[in-house]
Design brief:
219 residues; alpha+beta; Peptide Deformylase; seven-stranded mixed sheet; two-stranded antiparallel sheet; 29% helix
Amino acid sequence: MSVHHDPSHPLDRRVRVQGRPVDSYPELPAEARRGSARRVTEIGEEVLGRRCREVAEFGSAELSALIDDMFRTMYVADGAGLAANQVGVDLRLFVYDCPDDAGIRHVGHIANPVLELPGPDDRRLVDDHEGCLSVPGATMPVHRTDRAVVRGFDKDGEPVVVEGTGYFARCLQHECDHLLGHTYLDRLSKRDRKDALRQMADRREEVYARRAAKAADLG
């Protein structure tokens, strides 16, 4: 998911890592410093259109390295979240570094996520612009609920529960959609989908230039 937040809610230093509050946290997490940037898949590629496989082996060096690479890739692409199939790996796994509307920064990863949304009586739909690293340069309004809970596991197989409101709730829903083989374009009308693809065609090269510059800045 692309970075986007309401500037009327400037970020403060409150941070939650893996759903738990911490006193401080580096701007660039250790995972991103260890990892290597991978190519981001684009809309139309087969891996983005199919349901991802469950993570079956926890605690492995391979899983840790994938998470490190996903963090690095997300920061290079200026993202707020990134699913494994966006780097060509069809596993139910995503990483995130995303603010909520109260200015709290949420950072972490989650494997085999299960998304829980409010019931019909408690649900409030919000129409806000949404972007995707696999649809470079395009943003469109998308209906999402303003609250979400995701339950899953960390890389060692320990249970994780992450609660999101506002923009972070949108991020959680966006990434869970990816792992089911969907992008936000699937939630648009045919007309809006065509508009998004036109935006992508017009801005794609500019986006890739920014990513190359960011990769150089990060070393």
